[in-house]
Design a protein that fits this description.
By secondary structure, this protein is an alpha/beta fold. It has a single domain, classed as 3-Layer(aba) Sandwich (Glutaredoxin), CATH 3.40.30. It is 30% helix and 17% strand. The chain has eight helices and seven strands; from the N terminus they run E-E-E-H-H-E-H-H-E-H-H-H-E-E-H. A five-stranded mixed β-sheet has the order 5-4-3-6-7. It has a two-stranded antiparallel ribbon with strand order 1-2. A hairpin with a 5-residue loop joins strand 6 and strand 7. It is globular. It starts with 12 loop residues before the first strand and ends in a 10-residue tail after the last helix.
Length: 190
């Protein structure tokens, strides 16, 4: 099931990679960025998570909570220095893709192949690989999983549902900054 603007977010209760319970409805009254990434080794996804980790404090000051899902096992994520450094943003390993399925996150061979045709792909891959990603490959990862992002308001309504058109397609950081009320930082990359 795909989500659209105005729908209620679907609640879930999961454990993050540290075993802390994360229940989406506990964040009612806050703005939420719910991000669905590929796997622990994906340079595109990890580059994006790195960019957002630098904005965490500013977002939290504006009442925006980020929750990030990876399709990797929590044990593999915990082996990664990079993923430990993103904390305290809740990181959830969902290798069975249960929550991915609840939010309509898709797989697409066509969209996966389309990524190689996008400008800047090789540059992003090089940048992402410099992030000290785990050497151990995620054998259960889906090569064709396409990322998705959801902006959820304080009343638990989906303000924006963004389903990627390729592996490196997420909501723009400026759009998330504007949602958080940080329009003055739009266009400034941290």
């Amino acid at each position: 099931m795909k989500f659209f603007k105005g729908q209620n977010a679907v609640d879930f209760s999961v454990r993050d990679i540290y075993g802390k319970e994360i229940k989406l409805s506990d964040y009612k009254g806050k703005k939420i960025l719910l991000g669905f990434f590929r796997n622990v080794n994906c340079p595109f996804c990890n580059l994006r998570a790195h960019q957002f980790s630098k904005l965490r404090e500013a977002f939290e000051e504006r009442n925006l909570q980020m929750i990030f899902f990876f399709e990797s096992k929590p044990e593999l994520m915990l082996k990664s220095i990079f993923h430990r450094d993103i904390s305290p943003i809740p990181l959830v390993g969902d290798p069975e893709k249960i929550i991915y399925s609840m939010y309509g996150v898709e797989r697409s061979i066509w969209k996966q192949m389309k990524t190689s045709l996008m400008p800047g792909t090789s540059t992003a891959m090089k940048e992402g690989k410099r992030l000290n990603l785990p050497e151990e490959k995620d054998r259960g990862a889906s090569a064709n999983l396409i990322p998705a992002d959801f902006l959820i308001d304080e009343n638990f309504k989906v303000v924006k549902a963004h389903y990627g058109e390729h592996i490196n397609d997420h909501l723009s950081i400026d759009e998330v900054k504007a949602f958080a009320g940080l329009a003055e930082l739009a266009g400034i990359n941290h």
